[in-house]
Amino acid sequence: MRGSRLKPSTSRRSSLSLILVLALPILLSACTWGGNHSQLNPASEPSHLINRIWWIMFWMSVAIEGLVAGLVVLALIRFRRKAGDPDPVQISGNTRIEIAWTIAPALILVVLLVLTLTTMINVSEPAGDKMRVTVTGHQWWWEFDYQGMNIVTGNEMHIPVNEPVHLDLRSADVIHSFWVPSLQGKRDAIPGHDNTLWISADKPGTYRGECTEFCGPEHANMNFIVVAQPRTEFDAWVKNQQQPAATGQTGLEAEGAQTILTQACAGCHTINGVKGFAGKVGPNLTHIGSRQNIAAGTLDNTPANLARWIRNPQEVKPDNKMPTLGLDDDTINKIVAYLESLK
Amino acid sequence: MATVTTPGISIAPPPTYAPGKSAAAVIWDWMTTVDHKKIGVMYIFLGIIYFIVGGVEALLIRAQLATPNGKVLTPTQYDQVFTMHATTMIFLFIIPVFAGFANYFIPLMIGARDMAFPRLNAFGLWMLLFGGLFLNSSFFLGGAPDAGWFAYAPLTEPAYNPGRSMDFWAAGLTLLGISSIVGSINIIVTTLKMRCPGMRFNTLPLFVWTTLVQNFLLLFALPSLTTAAIFLLFDRHLGTSFFKAENGGDPLLWQHLFWAFGHPEVYILILPVFGIISETLPVFSRKPIFGYIFIAWSSVAIGFLSFVVWVHHMFATGLPDVALAFFASSTTLIAIPTAVKVFNWTATLWGGSIVTKTPLLFSVAFLTMFPIGGLSGVSLAVVPFDWQITDTYYVVAHIHYVFFGGSALGILAALYYWFPKITGRMMSEKLGVWNFWLVFIGLNLTFFPMHMLGLLGMPRRQWTYHEGLGWNLYNFVASIGAFTIAAGILLLIINLVASFRSGERAGADPWDAWTLEWATTSPPPEYNFVKTPVVRSRRPLWDQKHPDDQDWMRGEH
Question: Exposed, middle or buried, A8 (CB in 10 Å: 0-12/13-18/19+)?
C-alpha cells in the first residue's frame, strides 16, 4: 500500500473480508451441535427452555451487531474523505434521536429481563418426593451417595428417565461445580454450603458432565456421566449396586482378590463386603467393573486402560492424588482382572 | 463583543529528550523526574513491556490448547501461566497504560502545567514497577500464583496451596493497589482543581471525563480487593478463618469481596477507552462527537451502577433467587448507557468526512468489536442461561471481546493518535495498517470460536481437553489467531521503535485536531503552555482555526 492513503477499492475489499472473517466461524459451527455434552443438545425441560432463550438472544445479537457494523462499514464507504472535500456539517447531537435510541434498547432489555425472571421460575425444582443423591466434589472426582439406598459410587450417576432427581451438592475440599449441559445449568459445590440442584432426562442416554469451577491442577479431568435409563433398567442397576462386591472369582481374578489386599489400595478406596477395605479418599470400587470410564472420565474403562492407570496414575492425570505405587506388571494384571470382575 | 482569547501556541523550539546530556545524566533525570509527561511515558512503556509478558503467557496457553492432550505445559505450569496472564494484562498492562495516558494528557487537555501532586505521581509509578517486579519474581522464587487471577478460597488456603505463590499474589496486588490509589487521588484532584479558565465540566474533553469517573471507581473499588487480600494473608499466616468453612468462615465471603472490586474493575478497564474513542472518532470524521452530554453522563451512570452488579459473577453459587433477580435487573440496566454510546459513536461517523488513518482504523474496529462483547455480556445477565454458560469458554470469548476488542484496540488507537504528540514524530502508516489487519483478523480468529466452545460444553481454566468432543477445530483456529495477533503486535513494536528513531517529523497538530494538547509543540515543553489557555468551548482549537464559526457562537459549549 503506497503512501498514507488507502485506495478506495480497498475499503470494499476490507468490508468483504470483515464479513468473511465473522461468518466463517458461524458457518463452521453449523457442523456440530455437540453430542451429549452440550447445552445446544438439550435433553430435559429446563435445558430446552434455556436453549430457546439462547437462540432468541443469538438472533437478536446478530441483528444488533449487523446493524451497528453495517452502519459503520457503510459510513466508511459513503463518507470517506477525498482530498479537497469541505468540512462536513458540524452536527453535535439530536436530543430526540438520542432519547429514542435510549428507549429502544431499554425496551428490548426489559423483554429480556422478563424472560429471565419467568424462566428462572419455570426451571425451578418441581415439588414432590423424588430420589435424592448427595453429590460430593473431591479434588478431582465426583462421589454420588444415593440417600437411603445404600449406594455410593463415583463419577457415574444413573437416573430413571423422566423423573426429577434432587441433588445435594457438597464439597470435601475446595469449590467445585456440577454441570451436565444437556440436562441442566450448573451449581457450585461450596464447602460449608448446602447447595441443591435438580436434574431430569427426557430420553434415555449417557450425558457427559464436567466440573466447572477451577479447583486445582486436575480441574480439566474431573468429568462424570449421567446415565438416564428406563425405569426397569434403572431398578436393575440399583439392585446390582446395592449388592456387595462380587465374590467367587477364579483364576487370575481370584489371585487379584488376594493381591489387592496386600497393596495400599484400601488406604484410599472402599470395596463393600471386603473386610478392611474402607478407605474414603478415592472413589468406591465395589462395582468398578461396570463403569464406563475411569479416572473421572479421563480414560475409557478397559483392562488395558485400567492397567495403565494403576501402573502410573501420574502419567495419565498429573498431580492427581493417586500415587504411583511402583507395582510390577504381574501384580497389576491380577488386580485389574479382579477389579474388572466387580461388575 | 467580548474579546476572544485563544490558547497560545508555544514558539519555543521543541525540546529533545536528550539535549546534549550524558547517558547517565539522562537516566538520572528520568529516574528522579516528577514531570507528568515523563512519568506518563514511563507508565506507557512499562505497560507495553508487560503487554508482551502477558502476551507470551497467552501464546503459551494457546500452544498448550491448540490440540487435545497437549504436552506444552504441565498442569501446574499451566495454572501459573493462566493466572499470571490475567493478572499481568489487567494490573500491569491496561491499568498502567491508562495511567500513563491520563498522566500525560490530562494536564495538557485542561490547560494545566502539571498534575496536582507531582511527587505523589512519581511515587505511584515506582510502586507500579516495584509491584510488577515483585509479582513476577514469584516465577523464580517457588512458583507464580496458580489459583487464577480471581483466587477463589479455599483453593488459596494453606491446606490446598501451601507454597508462597499466593502470598506473592496478595502482597503484590496490594502494592499495585497503592500505586493505583495514589494515581487516582492525583487525577481526581487535578481534574477538579486545575482546569484552565473557561473549562467547565461540560467543556472537558471526554477522555478527561471518562478518566475522572474511572479514577473514582478505582478509589472506591480497590479497598475491597485490598481487604480481601489482607484477610487472605491473615488466613494463610495468622490462623484466622475468614474463608475457611470448617471454622465458621465462608468461601463465599471471598467472592463477594473480590467481585465488589472485580466488577467495577472491568469498567475501570474500559471507561478511558470510551473517552479515547470519543476523541479520535470526531477528529477523524471531521465533526464533533454526537451527543457529548449523553456520553459524559452515561459514563457517570455506568460508574454508579457498576457497584451494584457484582453478583452476576456468582449466579451459580446457590444464592437465593430473589438476590439473583435483583442483580439480573441491575446488570440488564447497566447495558443501557453502554449501548447508547455505541449509537452516539456511529452517529459521529455518519455524515462525517472520514480520514482512514491508523487511529481511525483501530477506533472503528473498537466500535464493531466491543458490541460483540457487550451483546454476549447481556446474554450473561439472563440468569438461567448464565447457569449453563458461566465458567465456560463463552465467558472467555466475552471478556476478550471487551478486553481486547475494547480496551486493547482503544489503547492501540490512542498510541497511534498520541505518539506524534509525545515524540514529535509520526508513526508509519504502512506498518500501522499491517499492524491493524493482523490484530483485527487475529482477534476474531482467536476469540470468536470460543463462543462456540462454551456452547459446546468446554469449561474454562482447563489445562487440556479430550479427543472426540468436537472442540479440536475451534481450539486450533483460536491458537492460529493468537499467533496472528502476536505478529501484529510485533509490527507495532517495530513501528514504535522505528518511528521514534526516524519517523517523519510531526508538527504541533498533525491530525488537525481540536483539544488543547494539540495547542503546544510536539513534544510539549516542560511547562506545557507558554500562557495558560482560556477556552470558550469543547473545541478550543476549532474555535481558533475557525474564528467566524466558533462552536460557542453556534450555541455549542
Answer: exposed
pLDDT band, very low/low/confident/very high, at B556 (cuts 50, 70, 90): confident
* pLDDT of A7 strictly over 60: no
Q: Nearest CA to B290 among B350, B360, B334?
A: B350
Q: Is B256 noted as a catalytic residue in this protein?
A: no
Confidence of residue A26 (pLDDT cuts 50, 70, 90): low
Q: Pick left, alpha or beta for residue B86 (phi over 0 → left; psi -120 to 50 → alpha; otherwise beta).
A: alpha
- Measured on CA atoms in the order A343, A300, B60, B470, is the torsion positive or negative? negative
Nearest CA-CA distance, residue B30 and chain A, Å:
34
Say whether B444 and A21 touch across the interface (CB within 8 A).
Answer: yes
How far CA B229 is from CA of B150, B154, B212, B247, in Å, comes to: 11, 13, 26, 19
Three-state DSSP at B511 gives coil
- What DSSP assignment string belongs to B240-276? --TT-GGGT--HHHHHHHHHHHHHHHHHHTTHHHHHH
Q: Would residue B149 show up in a list of annotated catalytic residues for this protein?
A: yes
Q: Do B321 and A120 touch (CB under 8 A)?
A: yes
* Structure ipTM: 0.94
Active site residue B557: no
Alpha carbon A316 to its chain centroid, in Å, reads 20
Annotated catalytic residue within B10, B165, B179, B515: B179
Is B474 close to A76, i.e. CB distance below 8 A? no
Which residues neighbour A1 within 8 Å (Cβ) at sequence distance 6 or greater? A7, A10, B430, B433
Which of B181, B311, B156 lies closest to B243, judged by CA? B156
Which residues 6+ apart lie within 8 Å of A194 measured at CB?
A168, A170, B318
- Residue (of A59, A220, A146) closest to B61 by Cα position: A220
pLDDT band at B211 (very low <50, low <70, confident <90, very high): very high
Could you tell me if A85 lies within 8 Å of chain B, comparing CB atoms? yes
What is the pLDDT, as a whole number, of residue B3?
38
Nearest CA in chain B to A173: B154
DSSP B70-115: --SS-HHHHHHHHHHHHHIIIIIIIHHHHHHHHHHHHHHHTT-SS-
